[in-house]
């Protein structure tokens, strides 16, 4: 590892960065203690919630979505893996015309994989209907309470529903603590985490694979990660017992911290 090189980059361009191995914090820096919009890292937090509800028997991933959302096409599994046929243009149109959930029920494309927010938005509604609880309540029960989080927010759409794909705001240290608990099997059991992180789709994007609302980079030591616009990253490398979190406001090169992680953390380990 070259943590000095990592620190120089993080502290020049990001708002926070953390690295730990075997439960020991190797690097920790943040520019402030404000709530940070973690953007599409929200999708991976939603995935944890869904998998824990599946474990409870609240729903099954292969249940028809229409069982919980009348008129919806596909399954929770297809929404989690972004293979339902829904697209980002569908999400944007539904948000623009105010139809929201109603406008996302029917897919618009039969292509194999589309990274989009429509699947995440509907998945959040599905788990709410199945559990009888709001997404915020489920986040509190499954993540905030076990992790001891006091400060967080989840942005809502104009129809008053939590934005499952990108609405979560967390403190930098809290996201890192959540990542540590996830990697150590204290937030979600290791067998359940393995199922959640198992790659399902060849995305054709940067050689990356997609699991159930998580990404996977097929390196020598596979990297499983949550990623959001602006440089938001939560990464875990089970083979090496390494976990890292980066937060930023990058206007381009969103994946720059991922490259730093490969170069300065994993290289030579």
Q: Care to describe what's here?
A:
This protein is of the alpha+beta class and 269 residues long. The chain has a single domain, classed as 3-Layer(aba) Sandwich (Beta-lactamase), CATH 3.40.710. It is built from ten helices and eleven strands. The protein has an eight-stranded antiparallel beta sheet with strand order 2-1-11-10-9-8-7-6, with helices on both faces. The chain has a three-stranded antiparallel beta sheet with strand order 3-5-4. Helix 1 packs antiparallel against helix 10, helix 2 runs parallel beside helix 6 and helix 2 packs across helix 7. The longest helix has 16 residues. It is globular.
Short description:
The protein is of the alpha+beta class. Helix content is 39%, strand content 19%.
CATH class: Alpha Beta
Cα end-to-end separation: 7 Å
Estimate the global geometry from the Cα principal axes: globular
Give the topology string: H per helix, E per strand. Answer: HEEEHHHHHHEEHHEEEEEEH
Give the averaged pLDDT, no decimals: 95
How many domains make up the 3D coordinates?
1
Q: Structural class, from secondary structure content?
A: alpha+beta
Oligomer kind: single chain
Q: Sheet with the most strands?
A: 8 strands, antiparallel
Question: Could you name the key traits of this structure?
Answer:
11 strands; 269 residues; alpha+beta; Beta-lactamase; 19% strand
Secondary-structure map with pairings?
Layout: H1 3-13, E1 16-21, E2 24-30, E3 36-37, H2 41-56, H3 76-80, H4 88-97, H5 101-104, H6 118-131, H7 135-147, E4 152-154, E5 168-170, H8 172-183, H9 190-197, E6 201-205, E7 208-210, E8 215-217, E9 223-228, E10 232-237, E11 242-247, H10 256-266
Antiparallel strand pairs: 1-2, 1-11, 3-5, 4-5, 6-7, 7-8, 8-9, 9-10, 10-11
Helix pairs in contact: 1-10, 2-6, 2-7
């Amino acid at each position: 590892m070259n943590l000095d090189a990592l620190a120089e980059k993080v502290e020049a361009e990001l708002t926070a960065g953390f690295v730990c191995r075997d439960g020991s914090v190797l690097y920790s820096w943040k520019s402030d203690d404000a709530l940070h919009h973690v953007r599409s890292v929200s999708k991976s937090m939603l995935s944890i919630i869904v998998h824990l509800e599946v474990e409870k028997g609240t729903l099954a991933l292969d249940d028809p979505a229409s069982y919980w959302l009348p008129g919806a096409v596909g399954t929770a599994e297809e929404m989690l893996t972004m293979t339902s046929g829904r697209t980002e243009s569908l999400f944007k149109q539904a948000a623009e015309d105010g139809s929201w959930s109603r406008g996302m029920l029917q897919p618009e494309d039969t292509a194999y994989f589309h990274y989009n927010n429509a699947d995440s938005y509907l998945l959040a509604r599905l788990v709410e209907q199945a559990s009888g609880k709001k997404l915020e309540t489920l986040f509190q029960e499954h993540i905030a309470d076990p992790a001891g989080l006091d400060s967080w927010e989840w942005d809502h759409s104009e129809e008053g529903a939590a934005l499952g794909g990108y609405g979560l705001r967390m403190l930098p240290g809290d996201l890192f603590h959540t990542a540590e608990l996830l990697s150590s099997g204290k937030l979600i059991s290791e067998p359940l985490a393995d199922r959640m992180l198992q790659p399902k789709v060849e995305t054709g994007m940067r050689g990356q694979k997609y699991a159930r609302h998580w990404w996977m980079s097929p390196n020598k030591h596979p990297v499983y990660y949550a990623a959001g616009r602006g440089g938001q990253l939560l990464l875990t490398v089970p083979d090496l017992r390494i976990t890292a979190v980066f937060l930023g406001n990058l206007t381009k090169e969103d994946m720059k911290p991922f490259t730093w992680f490969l170069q300065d953390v994993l290289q030579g380990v």
